[in-house]
Structures are given as C-alpha cells and as structure tokens.
C-alpha cells in the first residue's frame, strides 16, 4: 500500500452571497487506492477533528453513474483522467508533492451554494421543458412490437449515457449547455417513441437553455473532451439539425 | 415572429455565422480564381479586370450583397464574442484547455478582427484606387512595397488560421458530422485554407520578392 503527500487549494465559500477564496491544506499519507472523494472525506475528517468547517461537495452513488459529484481539478472538470467522474478518479494518478487546485463547476447558470457545491437545477429545468415523452396509460405493449434498428438503438443509448453532471458546461469556454441538451434531445429523437413531440421538444429545450443564461457554443470541443461518459459532439450537430427543422416548420 | 426568435436563439446566431461564412468562402474562391490570372501576365489580369468592370450592374449588386454578408458575419460574430466574454472572464483560478490544437478556435474573434483591418486597407488600396491608373499597375506598385506585402501575407496567415477552425465549425453548425465523412472534412478544413494562402499569399510574395519585376 503506497501513500502520497498532497497540497490542496480548495475553493471555500460560506454561501451564495459571499465572496469565496482558495484555502490551502496539506494532506499527508493519502492512500493511493482511495478515490478523489475519499481523499476529500479524509480531509474533512481532519478538519472536523480540528473543529473547522468541512469542505462541502456533492456526491451520491460514488460509482460514476448518478452525476452528482464533480469539481474542477487543476482547471479540468472531473480531473485529469479521461472518461471518469470525480468519484471514479483514483489517487494513484497523482504523486507526492502535487499541488491540486480544486474549484467548483462554474457557470452563470450554476450559483455556488457552498464551497464545491453548485446548484445545477438549470439543467433540470431544461429537461422539464421537453426532455420527456408523453405516454397515455393503457395495456403494456408487447415486447419487440416497436422495431428499432440496432444501430439506431446504439446511437440513442450513447446519448442516453449522459448522467447530467454538468461538466460540459463547466469546461466550455462560453459556459454553453449544448452537449447536455443535445444528448437529452438525441436520446428521444432517435427512437420512435420520441417522434410525436420531436419538434416541440427541440424548440422548448433550446428556448429554456437560452433563458437559463448558458453561453453560445463556438465548437471548441472542450465539453466532449471532459465528458465522463464520452458523449460526442455529433449530438450537437444533431441538435442543430433538429432545431433548424423544428423552427422552420413549427417555430 | 418565428424568424426573429430563430435569429436571436443561440443556435440561430450560429447558423447566421455559418451561412455567411459559407458565402464568404464561396466569394473567396471567385476572388482567388480572378487573382490567379496575375500569374499569367499583366495583360491577362487587366483584360479580366476590364471585362468584370464592363458590367457595372453586376459589380454593384455583387458588392452590395457582399457588404451585407460581411456586416452580418461581423455583427453576429462581435455580438457572440461579447456575450460569451461575459461568461468566460475571470471564471477559474486555474484554466486548462484539454483539447489540443485549440489555438484557432480560441483566437477566432482576433483573427477575424485582423482580417477586417486587412479588408479596410485592401478596399482603400484597390477598390478606391485612382481611376486613371490601370489596376494591373496599382497591384505592382502597392504589393512591390515590402511592408505592404508583408501585411498582406500576415493577413492571409490569419485567414488560414480563422478558416482552419471556421470551415469545420460551419459544417458542424449545419449539422454535418458523420463518422464516414469526418476524416474528409478535417482534411478539407486544412486544404481549403491552404489553397487560399497559396493563391493570395503567392500573389503578394510574387511582387514582394521581385519575381514580378517584369510583370
């Protein structure tokens, strides 16, 4: 079992209204088998024992599927490893002497609640505006009664892999929510169940996205590079097509 | 009105950038074809210019359309630049760009503004050049000046950088992104800007180096 010694610079901010700043902490003997969040747990245990306020951060499943955790580590959302969430990033990827600057996901649409904890409900409101299918209740349809080609199902599944962590917004130089919105629109636009509300969905979700104050996409590709689920910007191209088709006929 | 809603939406503004960008690239092709006659001889180039200006209505309509397209591209671009800057300024203490070769995408507004400066100099020099001097003579006089040519070549390099993100970005905005064509598109995104750099830069270099002394 090996361990490392780290210097952590963590964004501390008591609440949404106050100004925050970076606080420096030294953490020695970090087990390299720990995850990033477990490392923060250890830090918080030390802080609590010292009678200090522990660092607030979001987390839930800790197995990379819930989309709750996330922070910007040395300028990269979810840290330096590709296609992992912060909870699945292990300390073996760091070494003794490393200085880690840990900041919350930032966007005009993400108010900071406390420390690393941000309010991402703007993403929920995009979903509420149209990221669903309306299904009338009735008898359960037979399995396989709706034929869907394998390729189409795979593409829809690739888009549906989005866990809504919001790292795409945090890493976008313009704070755009295009990758998130495009994944949520694609997963339904690619399947027969999503056809009925297809155009209204594209119009409503883009309108809500703009209303929330997210920036404009300039195709910088940073979102795709940090996405823990490897969502491709091909979805953004699809969103652009969906939106133009919808606006020309029903906008 | 649906059109106003479309244009003012985030995707609508990008479509404006992409559409005007495409029209400007098409214009550059016609401009490059015309300029290429310089490499043949001053007579061929002068004949081409005379032929073009013997149809004043075409020149007028074309120029005004081009002015509108340019204005739309510049105004929408500046609007997006300032709107996005609101978001990005002083965001993180440490900022790391994960994407490699992001120089072109990061500098789009700056390369764009430099091309605009070039455009003003270029129009002052050639479009509003003295009526009584042949255009083939003006070309040689202006571009024979080392610093003038140097500025032109710098602008064409900026155009190369601008298009090396812009061309791909335009297709992405139009929704053209498919694994079957993406390699082809990424090649075109280098080849098309390179073509413009060779033709336009070649003309400037031709006079700058004195190769065009007997032109």
From TrEMBL, chain A:
Q: What are the BP-aspect GO terms?
A: aerobic respiration; respiratory electron transport chain
Q: Which GO terms describe its molecular function?
A: 2 iron, 2 sulfur cluster binding; electron transfer activity; metal ion binding
Pfam name, any one? Fer2_3
- List the cofactors: [3Fe-4S] cluster; [2Fe-2S] cluster
Which controlled-vocabulary keywords does the entry list?
A: Iron, Iron-sulfur, Metal-binding
Q: Can the keyword Iron be found in this entry's annotation?
A: yes
Specify the 4Fe-4S ferredoxin-type domain's residue ranges.
Answer: 153-182
Keyword flag Transferase: no
Q: Which NCBIfam families match?
A: PRK07570.1
The family annotation for this protein states:
Belongs to the succinate dehydrogenase/fumarate reductase iron-sulfur protein family.
Its name, as the record gives it, is Succinate dehydrogenase subunit B
Question: Source species, please?
Answer: Desulforhopalus singaporensis
From TrEMBL, chain B:
Q: Which SUPFAM superfamilies match?
A: Fumarate reductase respiratory complex transmembrane subunits
What sections of the protein cross the membrane? 58-82, 107-126, 146-168, 188-208
Q: Which superkingdom is the protein from?
A: Bacteria
CDD domains given in the database record = SQR_TypeB_2_TM
Protein name, entry field: Succinate dehydrogenase subunit C
Gene Ontology CC: membrane
Tell me the organism.
Desulforhopalus singaporensis
Q: Which residues form a coiled coil?
A: none
Keywords (alphabetical) are:
Membrane, Transmembrane, Transmembrane helix
């Amino acid at each position: 079992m090996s361990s490392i010694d780290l210097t952590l610079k963590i964004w501390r901010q008591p609440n949404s209204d106050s100004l925050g700043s970076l606080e420096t902490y030294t953490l020695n003997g970090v087990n390299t088998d720990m995850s990033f969040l477990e490392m923060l747990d250890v830090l918080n245990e030390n802080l609590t024992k010292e009678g200090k306020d522990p660092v607030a951060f979001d987390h839930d499943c800790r197995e990379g599927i819930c989309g709750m955790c996330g922070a910007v580590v040395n300028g990269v959302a979810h840290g330096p490893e590709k296609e992992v969430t912060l909870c699945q990033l292990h300390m073996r990827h760091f070494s003794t002497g490393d200085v880690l600057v840990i900041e919350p996901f930032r966007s005009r649409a993400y108010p900071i609640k406390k420390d690393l904890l941000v309010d991402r409900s703007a993403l929920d409101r995009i979903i509420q505006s149209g990221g669903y299918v309306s299904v009338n209740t009735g008898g359960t349809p037979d399995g396989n009664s709706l034929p869907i080609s394998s390729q189409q199902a795979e593409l829809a599944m690739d888009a549906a892999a989005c866990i809504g962590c919001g790292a795409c917004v945090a890493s976008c130089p313009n704070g755009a929510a295009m990758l998130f919105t495009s994944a949520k629109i694609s997963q339904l636009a690619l399947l027969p169940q999503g056809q009925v509300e297809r155009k209204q969905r594209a119009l409503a979700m883009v309108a809500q996205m703009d209303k929330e104050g997210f920036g404009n996409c300039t195709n910088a590709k940073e979102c795709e590079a940090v996405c823990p689920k490897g969502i491709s910007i091909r979805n953004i191209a699809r969103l652009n097509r969906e939106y133009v088709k919808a606006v020309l006929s029903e906008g | 009105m649906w059109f106003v809603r479309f244009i003012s939406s985030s995707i609508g503004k990008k479509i404006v950038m992409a559409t005007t960008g495409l029209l400007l690239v098409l214009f550059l092709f016609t401009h490059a074809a015309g300029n290429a006659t310089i490499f043949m001889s001053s007579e061929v180039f002068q004949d081409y210019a005379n032929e073009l200006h013997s149809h004043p209505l075409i020149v007028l309509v074309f120029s005004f359309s081009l002015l509108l397209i340019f204005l739309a591209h510049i105004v929408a671009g500046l609007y997006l630049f300032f709107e996005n800057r609101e978001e990005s300024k002083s965001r993180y203490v440490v900022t790391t760009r994960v994407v490699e070769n992001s120089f072109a995408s990061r500098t789009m507004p700056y390369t764009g503004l430099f091309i605009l400066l070039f455009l003003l100099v270029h129009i002052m020099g050639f479009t509003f050049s003295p009526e009584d001097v042949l255009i083939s003579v003006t070309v040689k006089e202006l571009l024979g000046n080392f610093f003038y040519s140097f500025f032109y070549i710098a602008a064409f390099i900026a155009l190369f950088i601008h298009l090396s993100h812009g061309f791909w970005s335009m297709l992405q905005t139009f929704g053209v992104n498919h694994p079957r064509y993406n390699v082809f598109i990424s090649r075109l995104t280098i080849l098309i800007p390179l073509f413009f750099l060779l033709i336009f830069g070649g003309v400037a270099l031709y006079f700058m180096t004195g190769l065009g002394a007997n032109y």
